[in-house]
Write a structure and sequence with these properties.
Elements (H helix, E strand, L loop, with lengths): L5 E6 L3 H11 L5 E7 L2 H11 L3 E4 L9 H10 L4 E6 L3 H11 L3 E4 L4 H12 L7 H11 L3 H7 L6 H11 L4 H8 L3 H14 L5 H12 L6
Parallel strand pairs: 1-2, 1-3, 3-4, 4-5
Helix pairs in contact: 2-3, 8-11, 9-10
Length: 220
């Protein structure tokens, strides 16, 4: 590690992704991997102990939502710049990630070379999102904000988005309740809130929308 090397923590539970990131960063002497974490608990512990300059974060670790983890990592390592590298729907989660404090978002479908470029952009003081997301953000500015909010899943809270994703992944109400540590009754309340916000009449409609969301087919 050189005096100018930036210390980087990788948080991802996929061995192939970890291998690929290590291989990529070995070619960038300006970055050095100071730690790796495969679950949220070890990510929090390492962020606090290592105080990395940068964190590459997958939003889904063992089925759990990562926006809250992102915020936790920033609280534990306030000077860290976080790049989200995730398979989650890019349009929905890039904005949520940046709003939560991330400095960039790269969809795993874009490949590893984009990660290297994104890190350079962030290191230079910028924020990185794909050209497609940037274009849609510009289009959103030209759209009536109230109408956009009324018809978009972006009006859901982070926890409601987490429940929506788990529905789309095929989890039962009991499984979702157990995973999130809340009661089945509370899960039912979340279902009703989501249906009201998205103007859905039936739970079946919610299941279809949730599945489309997980598959990256969110409505424009």
């Amino acid at each position: 590690m050189t005096e100018t090397s930036r210390r980087l923590l990788i948080v991802d539970d996929h061995p192939v992704v970890l291998y690929g990131l290590r291989f990529l960063l070995e070619k960038k002497p300006s970055f050095v991997i100071c730690g790796e974490a495969v679950d949220s608990a070890s990510a929090r512990a390492q962020a606090e102990a290592l105080q990395p300059d940068y964190i590459i974060l997958d939003l889904v670790l063992g089925g759990r939502d990562g926006i809250e983890l992102l915020q936790d990592l920033l609280a534990l390592a306030p000077s860290a710049r976080i790049l989200v590298y995730s398979s989650q729907n890019e349009w929905s989660f890039a904005r949520r990630s940046v709003k939560a404090g991330a400095k960039g978002y790269v969809a795993k479908s874009e490949g590893l070379p984009i990660v290297a470029h994104a890190l350079d952009v962030i290191a230079a003081g910028g924020t990185f999102v794909s050209d497609a997301v940037r274009q849609r953000l510009m289009e959103a500015f030209a759209t009536d904000a109230a109408e956009l909010e009324r018809t978009s899943i972006d009006q859901l809270s982070n926890r409601e988005m987490q429940v929506l994703r788990m529905i789309g992944e095929g989890h039962s109400s009991r499984e979702i309740a157990r995973e999130l540590g809340i009661s089945a009754k509370t899960i039912g309340t979340y279902y009703e809130r989501i249906k009201v916000k998205l103007r859905l009449d039936r739970f079946r409609d919610l299941e279809i929308l949730a599945r489309d969301h997980v598959m990256g087919r969110d409505p424009a």
